[in-house]
Amino acid sequence: MISRRSALYWLGVAGGAGALNTFPAFAKETRPGNGTRVIACESFCVADAAQEPHLRSYIADTLLPCMDQLRTTPRMCMEAVVAPHTPQTLLLTMYSSFNEMLEERARITSDPRVRRAWAALESAQVLDDVRSQVLMVSQESVRFPAGPAFAKSGLFEVRTWHAPAWQRDPALEVGSVLNRIGIDPIVAGAMVAGEHLPRFTYVIPFDDMAARRQAWDRLDADAQWAEMQRKSITRFGSGARTTAKAIYKLAPYSPLG
């Protein structure tokens, strides 16, 4: 049986029983506008590398087929290359609303196959932790893998900034700077809950580690970015600050399109 703690994460929230009770109310009060989507980001942290095949089997053979039966939901799966915890698998799933996310999570956790497979993971102590966050994104700022061309991206960096000057949404000026220097995110979204808001998470493809390093060096040297940081420090006392980053590769079983 899926534990109450695990069920909380499947609902896209973290915390105690209070979080489970209050999130539906938050969802009703915070409705994405036209063209806005919700992305659930769930990290499955494996306790021991030898047990990673069990998690892969759970996601590829049970979880994803269950999701396929419920609806055609854009999603992608990535496996950590460099992260605070490895092995780790990150599942990103896009929804049209918070209510759609909650409804699908409830149906998944009640599916007998998922319950049995999850119970087996818990019994074998495969997972050390399950972490979750929810993002709001504009329809234009998310492009999940839609074909083999995306699979050729060697790496995907997931980077979170605390950026008081960006307010509720990733600033258009930020996207302009990133695109100009060759950083082309496939996800750019605002976290809807948690500490130190506003925070923004980007998923960025790179060909390799060298290309990644060169891109961030170009950002550090960019005059427009430096001016944006200066203005943010003057007004808010802080510029955009990286609070988390990890590097992944596309999982071999990840949906494409």
What is the mean predicted local confidence, pLDDT? 83
Strand % is 25-35%
Radius of gyration: 18 Å
Assign an overall shape: globular
Main sheet attributes: strand count, strand direction, barrel closure: 8 strands, antiparallel, barrel
Pattern of helices and strands: HHEHEEHHEHEHEEHHE
Number of helices: 9
Low-confidence runs (pLDDT<50, min 5 residues)? 1-32
Name the helicity range.
Answer: 40-55%
Q: What is the terminal-to-terminal distance?
A: 32 Å
Order of strands across the widest beta sheet?
Answer: 1-3-2-8-5-7-6-4
What is the SS-derived class? alpha+beta
Q: What is the β-strand count? A: 8
What would you note in describing this structure?
By secondary structure, this protein is of the alpha+beta class. It contains 9 helices and 8 strands. It has an 8-stranded antiparallel β-barrel, surrounded by 4 helices. The longest helix has 19 residues, at 52-70. The radius of gyration is 18 Å and the shape is globular.
Question: Which key features would you list for this structure?
Answer:
single chain; alpha+beta; disordered N terminus
Structure at a glance:
The chain has helices spanning 4-10, 17-29, 52-70, 98-110, 112-123, 148-151, 172-180, 209-220, 223-236, and strands at 36-46, 75-82, 88-95, 127-142, 155-162, 187-191, 199-206, 241-250.
